[in-house]
Amino acid sequence: MMKDMASSDLEHLCFHINAKISSIKKCILLRNIGEDERRKAALHKIGNEVILIHELLNQMETEVKQQEKLKDLLKEMQKTAERDQNEAQHLLEHIPPYLPKPTQSCITVPTGKQEEQAKAVQPECAKKPAKDTKLIKEAALITMEEFESVPAYMKGRLTYDQINAVVQEMNKAVVAKYKILYQPLKSMSVPVRNLYDRFMEEETKNTRGLFFIVEADIKEFTQLKLDKRFHSILNILRHCQRVREVRGSGLVRYVIC
């Protein structure tokens, strides 16, 4: 067994020495070729081509790195697109029955002159807004995000739909009130003129230019019950900055924000 190992080591050593001798011979041969004037031009050309290939390899390496970065970026974009698609699908499957308005809306109410002019002109002309158009501001509906941000102690058992139903009823009262205020006095009946006079008496310097209603307006123009649940919803509407209160002369005025 020892003899076999010694023989293997000797063969390995001989192979190594022969490889070295072969390398030396090749170097001597190449040196002799380099000194040959007839082959210098060819060797110079080969050297230039090697340099060119090296430069091309560097460019290829740079391009490969850029493509890898682009691949990583496309993967991130794909993940973002898939996440947005999933969110959009979730929103599509959970559309609330009451969609909030994009901005606080205003209803246009024509004055007496405008109503007479609207009857006399063609429908195409009626689409053009007149200079005397009055705007009535309404409260925007509560969004689902706002509803979820309301503290639990404030919401209690109130639902999203119940709150927005009250918002719509309050908007109905606001529109009805200010339609009367924008009417010409000569066109008013006695009951309407009494309402008009009450509206004017409820105005204060703190409500000038604002849109507001009082509990009497809610009773007059809606079917809402002014009970404990209604006042709980008012607290939520104040929290969400849909209405605010202006008190004075024994009245609580609910101003549309």
Please tell me about this protein's structure.
This protein is mainly α. The protein has helices at residues 2-34, 37-93, 112-120, 123-126, 144-149, 152-155, 160-181, 190-202, 215-221, 228-239, and strands spanning 106-109, 134-137, 212-213, 243-248, 251-256. The strands form 2 sheets. The protein has a 3-stranded antiparallel β-sheet. Strands 1-2 form a two-stranded antiparallel ribbon. Helix 7 (160-181) packs across helix 9 and helix 7 packs across helix 10 (228-239). 11% of the residues are buried.
Give keywords.
257 residues, mainly alpha, three-stranded antiparallel beta sheet, 10 helices, 5 strands, rod-shaped
Give the SSE map.
Blueprint lengths: L1 H33 L2 H57 L12 E4 L2 H9 L2 H4 L7 E4 L6 H6 L2 H4 L4 H22 L8 H13 L9 E2 L1 H7 L6 H12 L3 E6 L2 E6 L1
Antiparallel strand pairs: 1-2, 3-5, 4-5
Question: What is the gist of this entry?
Answer:
Helix content is 65%, strand content 9%. The chain is mainly alpha-helical.
